[in-house]
């Protein structure tokens, strides 16, 4: 009798509907993390990183029904372009893959400080 009950339990678990996918769903200038249960139709977690050298990058994460990655390599991205990354699995879009060129990662303040220090060095050296 116990064997029959265990088999019925195993069969019920195996044929029960799968749990809905969970993805991080948010929009930010940094790697945002906001877990959310996706609609039943969602099959992918999607991360879109828009590159902008002047205003900084924008990261958007969402649940989507279908998704196609554009797999750009670092250094091949120009300002105004975007990188799309798709994955399947709960909270698989937690990590942010850096696809922006190194120059896009500097903030305006960092660039201004570097230029000021360079100018100061030139003045001190008398060039």
Automatic annotation (TrEMBL):
It is found in: Cell membrane. Its main location: membrane. The keyword Glycoprotein applies. GO terms for biological process: lymphocyte differentiation. It comes from the Eukaryota. CDD domains: TFP_LU_ECD_Ly6D (cd23542). GO terms for cellular component: cell surface; plasma membrane. Keywords: Cell membrane, Glycoprotein, Membrane, Signal, Transmembrane, Transmembrane helix. Residues 1-20 form the signal peptide. The chain crosses the membrane at residues 105-125. InterPro entries: CD59_antigen_CS (IPR018363), LY6_UPA_recep-like (IPR016054), Ly6D (IPR042339), Snake_toxin-like_sf (IPR045860), Toxin/TOLIP (IPR035076). PROSITE patterns: LY6_UPAR. Residues 21-106 form the UPAR/Ly6 domain. This is Ly6d protein. It comes from Phodopus roborovskii (Roborovski's desert hamster). The gene is Ly6d.
């Amino acid at each position: 009798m116990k064997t029959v009950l265990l088999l019925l339990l195993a069969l019920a678990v195996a044929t029960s509907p799968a749990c809905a996918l969970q993805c991080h769903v948010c929009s930010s200038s940094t790697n945002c993390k906001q877990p959310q249960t996706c609609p039943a139709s969602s099959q992918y977690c999607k991360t879109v990183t828009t590159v902008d050298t002047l205003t900084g990058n924008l990261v958007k994460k969402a649940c989507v029904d279908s998704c196609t990655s554009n797999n750009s390599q670092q250094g091949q991205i120009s300002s105004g372009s975007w990188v799309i990354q798709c994955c399947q699995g709960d909270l698989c879009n937690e990590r942010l893959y850096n696809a922006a060129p190194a120059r896009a990662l500097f903030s305006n303040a960092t660039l201004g400080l570097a230029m000021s220090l360079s100018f100061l060095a030139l003045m001190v050296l008398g060039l």
